[in-house]
Amino acid sequence: MSEKNPFYITTTLPYVNADPHIGFAMEIIRADVVARYKRLAGFEVFFNTGTDEHGAKLYEAAQQQRITPQEYVDKYAARFRGLVTTLNISANSFIRTTDVNHIAAAQEFWRLADANGDIYKKNYEIKYCIGCELEKTDSELTEGKCPIHPTYEIEVRNEENYFFRYSAYGQKLLDLYTSRSNFVLPEFRLNEMKAFIERGLQDFSISRLASKMSWGIPVPGDVDHVMYVWFDALVNYIAAVGWPHDMGMFEKWWNDSLGVVQYCGKDNTRQQSAMWQAMLMSIGIIPSQKIIINGFITGPDGQKMSKSVGNVVSPFDVIEEFKDLAHAPEEVIRFVVTHDVSSFEDSPVSRESIRSSYSSQLANGVGNLTSRIMKLSNTYLTEPFHEQSNHFATPYKEAFEKYDLREAMAYCMQMVKRLDIRIQETEPFKVVKIEPEKGKALITALVYDLAVLARHLEPFLPKTSAKILKCIRTNTTPEKPLFNRLS
Fold first, then answer.
1. In 3D, which of 15, 230, 14 has the Cα closest to residue 106?
2. Per-residue model confidence as pLDDT tens digits over 326-373
3. Which domain holds residue 401?
4. What CATH number did the domain enclosing 66 receive?
5. Looking at the DSSP assignment, which residues form a beta bridge with residue 46?
6. Entry pTM
7. Residue of 13, 109, 67, 37 lying closest to 458 (CA atoms)
């Protein structure tokens, strides 16, 4: 038996300064859909997610609540870990940047970059957005505010820090982008990064004074400094697969033919596709394979959904709303973020739009179709149906190859519509009473195609897919509707 090809996928690590919202739910669900698809396609998958737990925002929040930073991050990390279970996420790894192995990996990464001449110390003055935990140029500000975190005041900082020699990697990054035309998806994000680098890279600060902000990983050999949160957190992608303590594991999942597929939001584009790649180059590790950039989920007014603005939709609240309506209420969210939301552009989502999509696509679509076909099968076919197609349709596979999950889900929903139309046009419920054999053949074909639909839905709605296939194997109707209609 041949070994399966390895495939490594990871989300970014959300900052644990509040409860998880639907924006991160979208990222982790999409990565999960890809991971499940790859497993069904015959790959061995390692799927990493976790939490980012250092930095000034968390330090200040803990002080405001009069608890230690560790107590603060423990509380919120538990909420994010709970989301993994609640959303039925098939992750192999949940890494926390306060984990012992991650801390050791970050410090070893620092030592190697330092030994290679890419770390130095200097005094500097910058404008800093504590919401982004990033330096900001005047061109990145709107009326003196960060457009992503307008509720935070821009800080002017003047202190001595360690710096990473980012400026040395501009041409190497451009060469990387040229050699891998689809390194960043969608393509227009790659073009944005090329333009950003062509304007010239500035070295960036990678430490903070421990006397001002002690909540971070200590800099090796200098107790007066802790690591800047971004330099620390990005190392998780290799720490999660064994670097540097288990190089056999690391080389299995991160090698010349593989690397890593990383999901992130568009506000992470620079960090993932440039900063992190330069850091990897610094210590001689091959670049990531692909960076997939999501757009933002916005409110109905088009404003980015964020904790600081206060227009957040909680995945836990959505699940609570549908817990008595859907057999798997988390699959309402899984459907919305893969069907209703663009794979790469900003898209609005509201409680009202979720309810509308649930009614039209799940209750009146997938759920109703399953009940109609299985009632016909249970009434007129005497044997359970065992034959199942194990292949995926070409348009569906092509959509996954370009990480356009909305297109792949659209293919599934077109299957639902085609089956509904076929029932209306062929009227098997009438034909079977007049010409039993012809009617049974029509019903058998419908059951077969329902199984094909379930197969294609499996990465997106795994519990719904399993329910449909169980009904087909036992030739029964669902004990209760998969998706009850809204009252």
1. 230
2. 999 999 999 999 999 999 999 999 999 999 999 999 999 999 999 999
3. 350-474
4. 3.40.50.620
5. 8
6. 0.92
7. 37
